[in-house]
## 1
Amino acid sequence: QVQLVESGGGLVQAGGSLRLSCAASGRTFSIYAMGWFRQAAGKERERVAAITWSGGSTYYRDSVKGRFTISRDNAKNTVYLQMNSLKPEDTSIYYCAADLDGSSRYGSWGQGTQVSVSS
């Protein structure tokens, strides 16, 4: 299986930036795509962004388009989420996840990293 560990979360002011990292290990050859999800208190988990491992095709949730950028470094088995112009509504626990077969059923998840944005 694939193991994932996120880092880079923290507390920032509205309008600020953070860069999240997710390092993958284990059976990384199985990865089809990597995604970033978030779940705020009292809300459903939502997919923020995703990227295919080979081609680098990206997906973004409408609410983060133009502000967030997902990227990957295949050699380092690492995916990043650059978050700019952060808003209080971006406050959430952010999770990295791996789609292992192209089904969008993300079978491997990281432990999460907290992002808090103050107004």
## 2
Amino acid sequence: QVQLVESGGGLVQPGGSLRLSCAASGFTSDYYAIGWFRQAPGKEREGISCITSTDGSTYYADSVKGRFTISRDNAKNTVHLQMNGLKPEDTAVYYCATGRIQYDVSFYSPVCRPDEYDYWGQGTQVTVSS
């Protein structure tokens, strides 16, 4: 069974940085998409950044472009999210999830919608506040 464990969340001041990590295990395929999602109180869960295990193509939500960077280590089945320039509106529970690779035909980026991902970690809280 696929298992995902997130870490690295915490309390940070506006403008600060955090690095989230997701350790994955139990894969039966080398071909998958993995990404980061977040859910703030009263809001829908949203995909913020996803990456493929194959060609490393990426997707970033407009709200985090230029601030967040996703990276992967296929050998270790690990993915990271470097979060810089954090804002109070980034406060949410952040989840790591995996799913079957699907591409957005128009932009050649992985589909990064929560309903397309199958296996989820427990989440890690990120709070941005002074």
## 3
Amino acid sequence: QVHLVESGGGLVQAGGSLRLSCAVSGSIFSINAMGWYRQAPGKQRELVAAIISGGSTNYADSVKGRFTISRDNAQNTVYLQMNSLKPDDTGAYFCNARIRQYSSSLHLSDYWGQGTQVTVSS
């Protein structure tokens, strides 16, 4: 089984910073990509940032220049450094990993963490 555990959420004032971490463990052959999604009450879940195994990254337009995604492949951990936080960044943040579980697997599978709450006050 594959498990994702997020940490680092909290309550901060606008302009502050937080660093989220997501550690992946379990039966894994390789991780194709990892990313962060967020969901505010009454809104759809949206992609915040993603990083592919080769190192390329993607960001939502709303966080470009403020958030940075990085990973430690040796520890199967992904980070999201969030600076200059805004109230609109408030939401539950979920870690996602796209994983090839076995060397013989023809398909990739998505796994999700439980989520960590980020609240940014005015």
